[in-house]
Amino acid sequence: MNEVEKRYLTSLIEKANVFELFNDGMYIMGNLESDETTKGLVYLNDIDGWLRNINYLIEQINESANTVMNFIERENETKFSFWGTEHSEAFYYTENIMFRLTILWDLLAQLCNTVFKLNEEADCVSYKKFFKKYNDEKYEYNGLKEMAELVVSYISEEENDEKHTNPWNGNHTYVNNLRNSFTHRLNPHIVNFHNASFKKAGNEKEGMTFPVHPLYEIKRMLEDYNKAYIFISTVRKKVVKPI
After folding, report:
1. Which of 131, 155, 202, 222 counts the highest number of beta carbons within 10 A?
2. pTM of the full structure
């Protein structure tokens, strides 16, 4: 990892800071809507609930990302490993980031659901279905249409790492395929062979997997992380605090 790469990836981590809460230190239990002031406090309290979850993930992702960066800088982590086993420690933390990223995208949808008062049941909110639903023209009145359109466009990008500018295209698609590999195909972090035929996903073809270097994965993940963070920041700014 050269200095340019290091500075770029470090900047992606440093951009993601925990969000300030609206009712910091105040917890409201129950649906207390006796007057407009109380309704406003309940509304902000519910937003803070999602922000606390998001802040927890940000802290954990940042810690894991910094740990991976330290591993990569070690002598034995700068070389490519055909079998992947030499990078097992680094992969442990990239996997940690990968699964937390999925949760972060779902929390973006939960935050939107609360901020825009859409009243979807929290148990039924899944970010892909959620944003595709509200990307429809008939939901333009609720204020989420523009955000939904941007999110759907981004998560639908085809994977491409050939351009020499940052960020790469299709980072979300890459991370999503990587996650699915663990349960639906073959472990992408170890060399693996299987007689079943698999659809091309990430670095796998026709029942074979060959691990990539952790630096490749961490770049993909941090760029996807940065995009999710920008969307969350945008939604938070739309919150109008009741007087």
Report:
1. 222
2. 0.84
